[in-house]
Amino acid sequence: EDQVTQSPEALRLQEGESSSLNCSYTVSGLRGLFWYRQDPGKGPEFLFTLYSAGEEKEKERLKATLTKKESFLHITAPKPEDSATYLCAVRAGGSQGNLIFGKGTKLSVKP
Amino acid sequence: DGGITQSPKYLFRKEGQNVTLSCEQNLNHDAMYWYRQDPGQGLRLIYYSQIVNDFQKGDIAEGYSVSREKKESFPLTVTSAQKNPTAFYLCASSPGGRRSYEQYFGPGTRLTVT
Known about the structure:
The structure holds two protein chains of two kinds.
Chain A: E1 3-7, E2 10-14, E3 19-26, E4 30-38, E5 45-50, E6 56-59, E7 62-66, E8 70-75, E9 84-92, E10 99-101, E11 105-110
Parallel strand pairs in A: 2-11
Antiparallel strand pairs in A: 1-3, 3-8, 4-5, 4-9, 6-7, 7-8, 9-10, 9-11
Chain B: E1 4-7, E2 10-13, E3 19-25, E4 31-37, E5 44-51, E6 54-57, E7 64-66, E8 76-78, E9 87-94, E10 104-105, E11 109-113
Parallel strand pairs in B: 2-11
Antiparallel strand pairs in B: 1-3, 3-8, 4-5, 4-9, 5-6, 7-8, 9-10, 9-11
C-alpha cells in the first residue's frame, strides 16, 4: 500500500536555529513528490516538486531534497514567519494523478 | 489575479440538510479536485475531474456528489448521507501537460453540521 509518513509531528525552533523535516514514502513508482506550506485556516500553498533522486529545489530559506526513500525539507536560519504546517505528498505510478498526503509537520519558530 | 475561490469561508448546517460548496478557478486548469481535511489526518480525496462533464470518485466519495458542467467550476454537495460531514473542505486544480501533477489549492470552506 502506498504510504507517506512525515516526522516529526511538531517541531519547535528558535529563530535562526536550522533544522530539517522528513517525509518518507513507500510507493510503487514515484511520479513526483510535492511540498506544501499550510497556515492555520487556509489552503495549502505549493512550494516544490521533486521528480527524481538527487534532485534539489530551493526557495528563500527552504531547500527540498529527494532520495529513493525520503525527502527532506531543510530550513536555514528560520524566522517566525516560517511557522506553519508543512505537508508532503507523493504521486504514485498507478494513482491516475492523485496525490497521497502525509499528516504534516507543524513548525513553530520562536523569536 | 488568477486563482481558486471557494465560498463561503464558513458554513453552518443542521443535520439532515444537503449543502453545496462552491469552487471556481480562473487559471484555465483542466483538472479539479475536492479534499477533506480533519485534525491529525492527511488530506483525503473525495472526487476529482480531469475534464468537463466527467468526474471520478476518490477515496471517500460516499455521501458526496459533484458536477463539472464548466471548466471553471466544480461544486461539491455534501448530502445528508454523509455520516460525519463537519470538516475543512479544500478544492484544488492542476494544469495540463508536464505540470499536471502540481495541485494548487483554494482557501477552503469550514463546514459545521449540528
